[in-house]
Amino acid sequence: MTTTILVPAHVPAIPEMTATAQAASVTTALRSTATTMSDVSEWMTAHGAPADWTGDASLAADHAMTRVAEDTDAARAAFTRVAIACDKFVDKVCALTAVRDGLVSDRSKRNGEIDALTTRINQSTADDIATLQGEAEALQAEVDRLNDRIVRLWDDVEAAEDLLIAAFQAVDSTSEGQDAADRDTTDVAALRAELTAIGGDPQAINDWWTHLSPAEREALKISDPDLIGNTNGIPTGDRDDANRTSLDRDLDDLTAKQDAGEGLSKEEQRLLDRAKAAEKAIGIPDTQPLVDSDGDGVGDPVDVNLLVYQPGAFGGDGAVAVSYGDPDTADNTAVIVPGITNDGTSIATQGADAYELYKNSVGNHESAATIAWMGYDAPSWNPQNALDWPGDGLDMGSVINEQKAEAGGRLLADFVDGLRATDTVDPDTGDARSNLTVIGHSYGSTTAAHAAADHGLDADALSLIGSPGAGGNDVNNVKDLGMPEGKVYVGAADNDFVTWLGTDGPVGMGQDPAQADFGAKVFPVADGPEFHADDVGQGITNHTSYFDPVLNPESLSNLTSIVQGDEPTLTGGRTQDANDMAFEWAQDEVAHQVEQEVATTVQEATDVYNDSADWVGDRVDDFTGLWP
Amino acid sequence: MTRILLVALAVVLAATLAACTPDGSTNGAGAPDNDAEAFKTEMDAFARETLPQLEAQVGGEWTGFQGRFFEKGGNTGQWEYTAEGGTTKPPGTADEVLDKIEAVLIEQGMEITRPDIIADITGRKGNVAVQVTRALDDDVESISLLRVTFRSHDRLKSSDDFAENAGTTDLLK
């Protein structure tokens, strides 16, 4: 007798969603267009016909400008509406993508169970029939529930798309745009004034921002992207929205001008260079896959946030900060403070280091955000005074004093306060605080030390690498930095000549933090090859390798541990004074150069002697040939 | 004396870094100006020859490997050429996967360090370095995602605009 057990059919593959979080780029474009409309409308409203126009021509011009202002405001209102709708759509798509990922995982599990049950049935005896029958029915119920959830997913996707389409259709004519503008009661000028009145308290700013309506927040991001994107206390996602709007605007405006054959002024070219550098930094993770935590066979996307974008700041050097990961939700956050020679154009370089640290930091399954923070005026070229050397043009002259580090320290402390204010509660652990580490490199370490000693840097750990000094005459040991006990770490390569500069007094930039008696925890790094004065490039390599996985994996590994909140490998601090290391190098260098000079002179004399001997030999041969 | 030395060092540092910026006229180490271009040619060829073998031996779908230059340290005139990519869930145990990769790299004439400090395998041939890393620390039995990075071992010191303007090169094509 044959018994039939009905095994559920395999759950068919769940197609990829056509909409992805990449749709956010459309929102950025819409917001950028709305910003342009807003600027035009505001300008038209604020300006009438030129003052020296009179009579009918003046009146006609005023009327025409008013009409244009109204029309552009209608367009601005329409773009604002659809930008809000797109934002909501992207949020929905992200949520539905997570639902789909769960369904894909469940499908794989159920199909595996179906295969296993089929195998057992094929190997069963009559005694197993009842049990297998029961298991098959239970599995069929699970499969039915899964299929229902898949149907609901696509219903939700369709509903989200319908909402978006409806939002576009609601403002797809001039009159509907005008109607949207008339009903738009958001007073952005008043909101701007409120924000300005709060001052520089990031927590107060965050409280104020979170109490605004979504429409008010969107209106401010469109009318004042430069303000919203660079105010500490505004949440990371909103800062990113606003700064990408500004970046889009700059790239569009300047490349359009170039494409039209118009030459860019020097200032515009500098602005474009910084905008392109920011764009390159944002794009670093696009081509480098990461952990495939959702098991869909594709590396997880990285949430990149443009936290600061002020390409004209600091006399044209520019201020930019890019975060790989979202610091508002990350378990671990690192802020990397670069040093001399850096400005807005080098943000992609700093971004590459930050992303290297990010990739290693998420290896423990915890989320991370690593931020390349070029938010202060590091000693570098000042492009506006490029020919004024050695004055302001080469502002690296200021590397031998601490003024920029002192000013940068305040900006860094404010930035970190902003990160603390926007940190959100982790739904899994209930913990609101990200483990936050500030890593100062080179002159950036002096800046970070000033942030700690002078401004109460609110970080959990401070790491100083390649440091020329721990800032200020008042910092004599690690306790003077005011950081939590045992949470100041130092990495210093012996052949990094910048680390030989640490000294107190009017010339130095503070104590060498790698000294054993300074009291910081010193972790081992690769020292790099010794170098001579005629190969200072090697010295620079040694100074700029602390994040390099090939040239200095020891350093990168230890920095990763610190960012993850773990202890790095520790080594004893230096017992030789930093300046003595410099002095010793100089003495050796003098001896080396003298040896080189003597060797060169001996070689030259030998060459002259050999040439002369050859010449004499030739003449002897000549005469010998003539002699009978 | 110490003070004079420190000022001298600081000035040398500033002047050297300035001279090494892309607009400068020297290349810091006496290397030929076109070493970035020469290295790009060398590494692109190496990666294009190696990647198909890795795909064939290891299996799985390989993505990424966009070669591009990054200036190291910021406006120093020192460049790194790097291309990173990888594959998810390569079949076999972690050891089997790494063995296959090591074999391919040895076949390509590389000297192998396994394990290295931060990578599972580092291979080196001339100035080309290849690092192979499991993305998750606890991928002991099998590998969820494997990162493979081709990069220049030593910095490229170039005073011309080649590195800055090279853009990206898709090395999987």
The gyration radius over C-alpha positions of chain B equals: 19 Å
Radius of gyration of chain A: 33 Å
Instruction: Tell me the distance between the termini of chain B.
Output: 59 Å
Classify the beta-strand content of chain B into a percent band.
25-35%
- Percent helix of chain B: 25-40%
Average pLDDT of chain A: 86
Q: Please identify the oligomeric state.
A: heterodimer
Share in β-strands of chain A:
5-15%
Tally of DSSP β-strands of chain B: 9
Helix count of chain B equals 4
Q: How would you characterize the largest beta sheet of chain B? A: 9 strands, antiparallel
Give the distance, in angstroms, between the N- and C-terminal Cα atoms of chain A: 129 Å
Major sheet details of chain A: 8 strands, mixed
- Helix/strand order of chain B: HHEEEHEEEEEHE
Description:
- The complex is a heterodimer of chains A (628) and B (173).
- Helices cover 53% and strands 7% of the residues of chain A.
- Chain A has 628 residues and is of the alpha/beta class.
- In chain A, strands 1-2-4-3-5-6-7-8 form an 8-stranded mixed β-sheet.
- Chain A is globular and about 110 Å long.
- Chain A starts with 23 loop residues before the first helix and ends with a helix.
- Chain B is α+β, with helices and mostly antiparallel strands.
- Chain B folds into 2 domains: 31 residues; 137 residues.
- In chain B, 35% of the residues lie in helices and 27% in strands.
- Chain B contains 4 helices and 9 strands, in the order ααβββαβββββαβ.
- In chain B, strands 1, 2, 3, 4, 5, 6, 7, 8 and 9 form a 9-stranded antiparallel β-sheet that branches.
- In chain B, helix 2 packs across helix 3.
- The longest helix of chain B has 24 residues.
- Chain B starts with a helix and ends with a strand.
- At the A-B interface, helix 11, helix 14, helix 15 and helix 16 of A face helix 1, strand 2, strand 3, strand 6 and strand 7 of B.
